Amino acid sequence: MKIRPYHAEDCPVLLELFRGTVYNVNSRDYSPEQVAAWVGCVDPARWAVTLAEHVTLVAEIDGVVVGFGDIVPETGYLDRLYVHCDYQRRGIAAALCDRLEPLSRTGEVYSDVSVTAEPFFAARGYHVVRRQLVERCGVLLPNCKMLRKLTSGIER
Prior knowledge:
Helix content: 25-40%
């Protein structure tokens, strides 16, 4: 697996990967209405801006984009972390986090985590700060804000 920096031309591929992951993986924990709102409310132009503004890393296997994640180093906010539905449970999300988390300048990393991803983040040492409902296109989706305090050096 190769992890590389994001390039602007990656945006359409990452959007497709995100959509496929939500439809094929997150749909186990969210209703069809919630999944449709989650995917349907994404603004591609906004994604292009935030992916470029954040530190965004892309994971590839044999030249195929299989995952991505992004962090805001100034705040420690891990914004997105998605792995292609056909490449789940291969260590891709962990490898991305291993590279992204140490970039936080605050001594901690936090994220708004889906019900689906909560066990992954808990296994990495994150704890639930609060459970919340977020609105997407008029539909409420449950998730939780999770936080991980970092120690010195590279984590995990």
